[in-house]
Every structure is written in C-alpha cells, then in structure tokens.
Amino acid sequence: MLISGLLVGVALGFVMQRGRFCVTGAFRDIWVTRNTRWLTAFLVVVAVQSVGVFALDAAGVIRLHGDAFPWLATIVGGFIFGFAIVLAGGCATGTYYRAGEGLVGSWLALITYALFAAIMKTGPLAGFNTAMRSVTVEQSNFYTVLGVSPWLFVAVLVAAVALAVRHHLNKPRIAMAALPPSKTGLAHLLFEKPWNAFATAVVIGIIAIAAWPLSWATGREDGLGITTPSSKLVGYLVTGDAELVDWGVFLVVGILLGSFIAAKGSGEFRVRVPDAATVIKSLGGGALMGIGAALAGGCTIGNAMVQTAQFSFQGWTALVFMILGTGLAAKLTIMNRRQAPAAARVPAGV
C-alpha cells in the first residue's frame, strides 16, 4: 500500500507543475500586485478538500481528531516560513516541483529545507522545537469551541470561495499570443494547453481527498504532508532505518518524479544554474523554511491546505502568519527594489 503514496505524489507533482500552482506567488501577489486570483485558487483546494474530509469522517473511513493548539510556535513558525518562501523562490511543494523542472536553486533550497526540518524535529534543535510547541491552549478547532456542526463551516467556506471564483471569472481576460499547437488530443491537453487556475485547484483538492484514506490504510493517520516526510527522508538517508520510510516519504519522492514527467513532456525541463546571490538566498530560504515549518507544525500544504480544511486553529493561524511573513519579505526584497530606481529619478529638492 505504500506505493499509493508514490502514485499520489506523481499526480500531485504533475498537476502542480502543469498548472503552475505556486502558493508563494499566491501569497506574494496580495502584497505586490494586489491580486487575489491565485489565493482564491488556493482556497478552492481548501474548500474542495474540506467537503471530502468531513464526508470521509462522517462515513467512518477516517477519524478526525483535534490536538491542543501550539499557538506560540504556530505564530512564530508560520511567520518565518512565509518570509522564507520568498527567499527560496517557492514553498515546500513548489520547491519540490521546481526541482523536478531542473532549477538548481530549488535543489539547494530543497536540501536545506529537508535538512533543517530534520534538525528541528529529531536533531540538535528538537528540544527547542518541543519546548516551543508545548505552549498550548486546549481548544483545537472552531466548530468545537462554538459547539456547532463542522458542516456549517464547510458551507460558509464553499459559498465564500464560490463567490470569489465568480468574481475573478467575470473579470475581462487579456488575450495572450500563443504558438500554434504541436500536439493533438490528450497530449495537447496534458502537456501543451495552459491549465486554468481554478480547474487545477479542483484537481489538487480531489488528490488531497484521495490522500486521506490511502494514507490511513498504511497506518499513517493524516492527509498530504511535506515537512515530516522530508525530515524522515533525511533520517533514512543518514541512518538507513527503513522504518522511517512511510507513505509520506513515497509521496514527496513522487512529487519530484511527477513534476519531472510533466516538465519533460511539456518541454520545460532544463537544468538552470543560478548566480551566487540566488544560491545564497536559496540555501538560507530553504533552511528557514525547515525551521519555520517544523515550529508551525506544517508548511503551506500540511497547515495552510490540510489543517485549514479541518478548520483547526493551527491551520488558519499558520496561514495568516505565512501571508504576513511573505508580505514582509516581499517588501524588503521586491517592493523596495522597485521604489529605489523611481526615487533616484526624482530631482534633488523636489
């Protein structure tokens, strides 16, 4: 059954690469261009998965359970992670699928991300991580605190996201020039035709739902997740302990493989070596991603996509602070750089 993790990972990596599903860009666009199209697509994933998760729970296929909310670690870790993904040029999953495209900078970010996640979870900083995550409150999710059915939250989320999607679909689209298709049929649809952001999000949401029963069947009681599997992969490579190789490890390996297949099929695979400055940013961003994700209890997948679908305090708090961290990094590395040349053109004394 572990092989199902590889298959889910291949599907996820393929869809994210072909759909250009960049969570870092979704968060960054809020601050840089004031555009919420990709954030809305991200929330489509959350909404679709939420319907599926609570349906699976109601059917007895899985059993959702809430843990205490480690509020301090979630806030600090979420903010660090959000800041880091701008430096690294992609979130955890984005780094995996861009590594599959041949981006050497993403290879470097991926290595330090996985390494520092392992350092935080089972290495020298495990004590610090545990201490930070031990600062908790008992309440774990919104619907339990309010004493209402989770389906009320599901309905509100689905309705709100549907309205946001409608808003974006009603906006006039700029026609983009494109080369004549060189493929036909399914090959054209899979490897050549641009994928719609919201259609891509629905497919990712369905993959996320499928991950739950498949993962549970192997004894791993969770859905999609990137940080802990990445940490376990490092542990396995260092110790050779085969018990560390679970469904999640197969998942992250599958993401690499799926994105490589998609990039090769679409002609987008190319080994690209970054300059020295990008190398430093990739290494530092990846390290901070590992630290932040370990503290927060998950990345943009485990927290902002999976935990939010369960309406946990951890998931939604992490999402908010990831966006805030991304905003600060965008201001320091992108927006200030744009403003500087403009300021230099203003005559003295004006």
What does this protein look like?
The protein is mainly alpha-helical and 350 residues long. The chain has one domain (3-62, 70-169, 207-334). The protein is 70% helix and 0% strand. The chain has 16 helices and no strands. It has helices spanning 3-18, 23-32, 37-58, 71-88, 92-99, 104-121, 126-133, 142-146, 150-169, 185-191, 197-216, 227-239, 247-266, 276-296, 302-309, 313-344. Helix 1 packs parallel to helix 13, helix 2 crosses helix 16 (313-344) and helix 3 (37-58) runs parallel beside helix 11 (197-216). The chain is globular and about 55 Å long. The N and C termini lie far apart (69 Å).
Q: What percentage of residues falls in helices of 4 or more residues?
A: over 70%
Order of helices and strands: HHHHHHHHHHHHHHHH
Q: Return residue spans where pLDDT drops below 50 for at least 5 consecutive residues.
A: 342-350
Proportion of beta-strand residues: under 5%
Radius of gyration: 20 Å
**Would you tell me the overall average pLDDT?**
91
Number of helices, counting only DSSP H or I runs of 4 residues or more: 16
Gap between N and C termini: 69 Å
Q: Kindly name the structural category.
A: mainly alpha
Q: Name the overall outline.
A: globular
How would the blueprint of this fold be written?
Blueprint: H1 3-18, H2 23-32, H3 37-58, H4 71-88, H5 92-99, H6 104-121, H7 126-133, H8 142-146, H9 150-169, H10 185-191, H11 197-216, H12 227-239, H13 247-266, H14 276-296, H15 302-309, H16 313-344
Features:
single chain, 350 residues, mainly alpha, globular, Sulf_transp_TsuA/YedE, cell inner membrane
